[in-house]
Amino acid sequence: MGETISNSEYLNLLDRANFTISTFLSHHSQLSKPRVLIICGSGLGGIANILNNQAEISYEKIPGFKLSTVPGHAGKLIFGHIGTNQVPVMCMVGRLHFYEGYSFQETTFPIRLAKKLNVSTVIVTNAAGGIDPTFKPGDLMLISDHINFPGLAGYHPLRGPNLEEFGPRFQPLSDAYDFELRKLFLTTARNKLGITRNIHEGTYFFAAGPTFESRAEVRMIRNLGGDAVGMSTVPEVIVARHSGLKVLAISLITNAGVGDKPPSAFAENPKPLDEGMASHDEVLQAADEASKDVQKIIQATVNEL
Fold first, then answer.
1. 79 close to 34: Cβ distance less than 8 angstroms
2. Residue 1 included in any domain
């Protein structure tokens, strides 16, 4: 697990990162005041293609940033404009995960940097497994609530001395996923763009990963109220809300969770054990097929912010 540092060291790193980005953006003055942070999930790095007037910097050049080690996560910040209204944004092409060995302090560092840069809205995307049996690969789910399973067990991104500079000791999360942003995304997709892809709304279950869920775990998550499951997003959302940022979060359903019991050794004609089994290649393929619709909706949504 990644090392946790003191608040004073952490704030110093933030100041250094802020200085680095501010210096970088001083050469791109039209991009110097991003209003929106977009976090690209697995296979969704193509979202960065909707940015105009791009300027990019790799994570390794930013103090406090760790390197992304997962296929489909490039590991760079891209600044640019979106839409006819030229909304200035910063885009994380590649996020950091707890399962990579990083601490939550490290994986959520970019969120607080965005706050220092005066970003006001965070759009989080992810690839997720469908737990609701009506969800199909390629569907989208607007996240309206979450279950922070590691957090309930003590692995929480706000654990430790509170950073009073950003938010309160006891952060409420009943309003974590902004209603107006969810409504804007949905009406933009349906009424403005005429997107016919299935869009659901539901609860995201955060599991630490990196293994995909067992059959019994899928049944448990369903019983606990999860509609989709993934290995990211919730720590970032919690820190964003602690920092006073509005949040819109979208899951791309890339595989259906296998929740029926495994074939019995007593059965004469059992189903193959690997039937419906998830893989990261499947995640990337489904993301690639749906990414154009996701890009269109995010572009039109951000244009209204």
1. yes
2. no
